[in-house]
Amino acid sequence: DVQLVESGGGSAQAGGSLRLSCAFPKYTSYDMAWFRQAPGKEREGVAAIDRSGVFRHYAASVKGRFTVSRDDGKNTLYLQMNSLNPEDAAMYYCAAYSVAGYDELDTRAYKYWGQGTQVTVS
Fold it and tell me: Cβ of 17: how many Cβ atoms within 10 Å?
């Protein structure tokens, strides 16, 4: 199994920033993505990046505020979140290994998931 470990969550004020990280195993190269889930809501795709790091996709709600990136030398996926608002508060998950036939921000597109890191915005 593939272990993904998120970190960097915490509390931020509205208008502030946080950077999330997701460590993934060495010698792997997967398409990856960030998802989030707020209480009582379905898990939704936030941002995705392909294994080359060239192609990125964003949910409309975060486009222009969030940036997904990866550093394969450090085996880490990042999500830079700026201009946070209370609607961004959620548990954030990273996912890896895309399955063909689904949109990049569809939960069904990914096989491996981390345990999540909590983001609160006040």
Answer: 13
